[in-house]
Write a structure and sequence with these properties.
This protein has nine helices and six strands. The protein is of the alpha/beta class. The chain folds into two domains: 5-16 and 100-224, HAD superfamily/HAD-like (Rossmann fold); 17-95, DNA polymerase, domain 1 (Orthogonal Bundle). Strands 3-2-1-4-5-6 form a six-stranded parallel beta sheet, sandwiched between helices. Helix 1 (17-31) crosses helix 4 (83-95), helix 2 (40-56) runs antiparallel to helix 3 and helix 3 (62-77) crosses helix 4 (83-95). The protein starts with a strand and ends in a 10-residue tail after the last strand.
Length: 226
């Protein structure tokens, strides 16, 4: 693949959001004297994923997630607690909780010796920067692009337009996007003419993966492509 720069997602691509969230929500639960029932993390993932999907589709804005996420989770779990207060402390915990995806530092070191690396995320810039710094990954990053700075969420074309504009004199065809989200990362990038490597974090058994140039299930497989 003939490329000159890398765009890469953060959550569940470089940093393991699921593992980080599990730690953060349990630490927050201790502060709020909340006891989770069996199956609570699956409930969190379903509701959280649905909210972020709605955000990507433009149905809600990010503040809607913060205002409703934990109240929705508590309602589903039958827990009586202050969801907004829990949300605030949960996000504080997330800023200091960071678990790298297996192979993340190895592949960033490898890529950084060949290309400038730009992150592309819909999450908070301050949170993501702090988490990347905590894991020692920030030193490999040339620049961070976030939806809060751009004003548009992935997969909007405006998001990727901003990224490519900031990479000038590079063009879309000079860049590859690496990420776990089919819609936000891969299809979003492809719709803008950017090559893509889908990191199949959840190891989905899709029969058709025409939406991406490459599929990997381990970050180190990128060495066979770039």
């Amino acid at each position: 693949m003939n490329i000159k720069a890398v765009l890469i997602d953060i959550d569940n691509t470089l940093l393991d959001f699921d593992k980080s969230a599990f730690i953060a929500m349990n630490e927050t639960a201790k502060k709020h004297n909340v006891t989770f029932p069996e199956g609570y993390f699956d409930v969190f993932l379903r509701i959280n994923d649905k909210l972020w999907k709605d955000l990507e589709c433009g149905i809600i804005v990010k503040q809607d997630i913060y205002n409703t996420r934990w109240n929705m989770i508590f309602k589903k779990l039958g827990i009586c607690a202050d969801g907004k207060a829990f949300e605030e402390d949960f996000r504080k915990e997330m800023r200091t909780t960071a678990v790298p995806v297996d192979g993340a530092e190895d592949i960033l070191k490898y890529l950084s010796e060949k290309y400038p690396i730009y992150t592309a995320s819909n999450a908070s810039k301050a949170q993501q920067k702090q988490r990347l710094e905590k894991t020692g990954l920030m030193k490999y990053i040339t620049e961070m692009f976030t939806s809060e700075d751009i004003g548009f969420q992935k997969p909007a074309k405006e998001f990727f337009y901003f990224c490519i504009r900031e990479m000038y004199p590079l063009h879309a065809e000079d860049v590859v996007m690496i990420g776990d989200s089919v819609d936000a990362d891969i299809i979003g990038a492809k719709n803008f003419g950017i090559k893509s490597i889908w990191f199949d974090y959840n190891k989905n058994n899709f029969s058709n993966i025409d939406f991406t140039d490459y599929r990997i299930t381990n970050l180190l497989e990128i060495k066979n492509i770039l």
